[in-house]
């Protein structure tokens, strides 16, 4: 089974569209269709059902996708191991992390990392599905919310961070030393939409206490939430450390919660069956030191 045909198959599986997959791969659509037919003939079963213009993966296709991802990762691991053996330095590391952490915490970290390890090519992806991206071998390392123990993963705790209430400095709440979540039922709030990790953490704590918070506006980025707080539209519930990244924002005040408090527990994760390159180890150690140092301040 040729890895090139597996790559072709993976592209069609992910896009469920032969023409778009061919464009991504830089080949013609007839060539792609022919290679998929060759792969199906080799395996003795269809990998896709073609219903008019709609493409649907068969059960065999879903099974091949699972093992195909591992095959391609094994090829990358082999190439990286040999490259490292020959050169002694360099390599590419793919990192997935939550959007707010990428935008507000780790971009400044990457500058000194690049200065210290100039031969390492770092590719960083923003996603709320960090663990899924790691398990599917789309990235090498992930930083996200702590999940249940998984034997497929190496999971390294990075620390915990409570959420605070961010309010405008001119707000009636700005002089408060602390506040309860339930008091916010009477105040205007701007939050992530339901289904976002930061919103779900808050909602879970509220539901356990028997109430639910309403919003006046919802947006999908932490930066826009801060802008809405600055404009006086409403208060936001965000990780404590977020405001430290913006010391110039004197118009926003952070108020700690008393009583039940949303807390996010962070972890670094990578697959147990991966080849761990020198560049992988260097980035992992750099990230762990950064988070442990941040949480001790």
Automatic annotation (TrEMBL):
Q: Which InterPro entries match?
A: LysR_HTH_N, LysR_subst-bd, WH-like_DNA-bd_sf, WH_DNA-bd_sf
- Could you give a GO molecular-function term held by this entry? DNA binding
* Record flagged with keyword Transferase: no
Which residue ranges does the record assign to the HTH lysR-type domain? 1-58
Q: Which GO cellular component term is one of those annotated?
A: protein-DNA complex
Entry keyword set: DNA-binding, Transcription, Transcription regulation
Provide the family line: Belongs to the LysR transcriptional regulatory family.
Protein name (database record): DNA-binding transcriptional regulator, LysR family
């Amino acid at each position: 089974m040729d890895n090139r045909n597996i790559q072709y198959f993976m592209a069609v599986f992910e896009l469920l569209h032969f023409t778009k997959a061919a464009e991504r791969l830089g080949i013609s659509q007839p060539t792609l269709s022919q290679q998929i037919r060759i792969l199906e003939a080799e395996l003795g079963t269809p990998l896709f059902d073609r219903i008019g213009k709609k493409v649907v993966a068969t059960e065999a296709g879903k099974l091949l996708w699972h093992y195909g991802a591992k095959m391609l990762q094994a090829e990358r691991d082999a190439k990286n191991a040999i490259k490292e053996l020959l050169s002694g330095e360099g390599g590419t590391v793919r990192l997935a992390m939550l959007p707010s952490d990428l935008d507000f915490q780790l971009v400044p970290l990457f500058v000194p990392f690049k200065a210290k390890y100039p031969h390492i090519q770092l590719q960083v992806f923003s996603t709320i599905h960090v663990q899924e991206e790691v398990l599917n071998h789309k990235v090498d390392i992930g930083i996200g919310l702590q999940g249940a123990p998984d034997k497929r993963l190496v999971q390294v705790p990075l620390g915990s961070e409570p959420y605070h209430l961010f309010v405008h400095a001119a707000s009636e709440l700005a002089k408060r030393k602390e506040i309860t979540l339930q008091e916010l039922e009477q105040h205007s709030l701007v939050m992530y939409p339901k289904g976002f990790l930061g919103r779900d953490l808050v909602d879970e704590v509220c539901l356990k206490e028997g109430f639910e918070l309403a919003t006046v506006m919802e947006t999908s980025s932490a930066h826009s939430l801060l802008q809405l707080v600055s404009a006086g539209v409403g208060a936001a519930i965000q990780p404590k450390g977020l405001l430290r990244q913006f010391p110039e924002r004197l118009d926003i005040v952070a108020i700690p919660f008393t009583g039940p408090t949303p807390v996010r527990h962070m972890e670094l994760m990578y697959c147990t069956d991966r080849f761990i390159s020198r560049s992988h180890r260097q980035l992992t150690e750099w990230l762990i030191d950064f988070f442990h140092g941040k949480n001790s301040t």
